[in-house]
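Pilot study result, target chain (146 residues):
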Amino acid sequence: MTLNDLTKLAMMKKIAEHPLIPLHALPPVRPFKDASSNELTRAIVEFVRLTGHYADRINNTGIYDKRTGKWRKGGTRKGISDIIANKMIEHQGRRFSIMVAIEVKVGKDKMSEHQIKVQSEVQNSGGVYIIAKTWEQFYQDWQSIK
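Predicted structure:
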């Protein structure tokens, strides 16, 4: 699946959700891209949801406090992945959910020490950890989860 395919799939969902609105009156879906971390994260979350799985973006940035003029720590643990997802798989006629942590790294962005620790913990507990650098690479990694 390409990002263009994902955009078309999202538009088909929008049309299905609003059957009484004429097609010309529906605003188009903003095209999906992977040029920045935010764009790739948006594409991944939408893809996972549109294909019947679970995904949530984790806001792990600090919070600016206007009163004090300083940044406060966010409420999440250092190193938590950008996206938490569950992928449903079938094995020997039974359905299972696999926990997938997805860290988005575009361009020269590198994993921090805390992120490497979380990656190890996720993998050691039976989860899957994906470092998504491009759409194509993420899609291949997601498809390989069986």
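One observation from the pilot: The chain has a mean pLDDT of 95. A full batch analysis is planned for the follow-on phase.
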